[in-house]
# Entry
Amino acid sequence: MTKPKAIVLAAFTLWPVLYMFLFLVIMFSQFMMFSTTPPANEMPLALKIIFPLHFFTMLEIAVMIAIYIRHIFKSDAVAQDKKALWAVVIFLGNMIAMPVYWYLYIWKKIDKNA
# Structure
């Protein structure tokens, strides 16, 4: 993998973590806004924005899981006896495991080849 592709992959890998913090900030801000309430039949603007972002992030996580699992089994970066373990870790702990895997097996491999 080239360095620009690895950086783009890192950006997509870090988006769910950044989105989690964005989501929490927006949700807490909505609960703390007691003085400005929208009309009864209207959804607040922040929630109108967060719903599509939430859907996009869930879809993006599913695609990233597939990309990482494919990389695990197609690449020789991971030792053969650790491939199944990494696949399970990526599938179950995706938001935490994907950045770790990216650093250990994609970024460090690019640095060794450079």
User: Anything to note?
Assistant: The two ends are 11 Å apart (CA to CA). Residues 29 and 46 are 9 Å apart (CA to CA). Residues 3-33+45-113 form one domain.
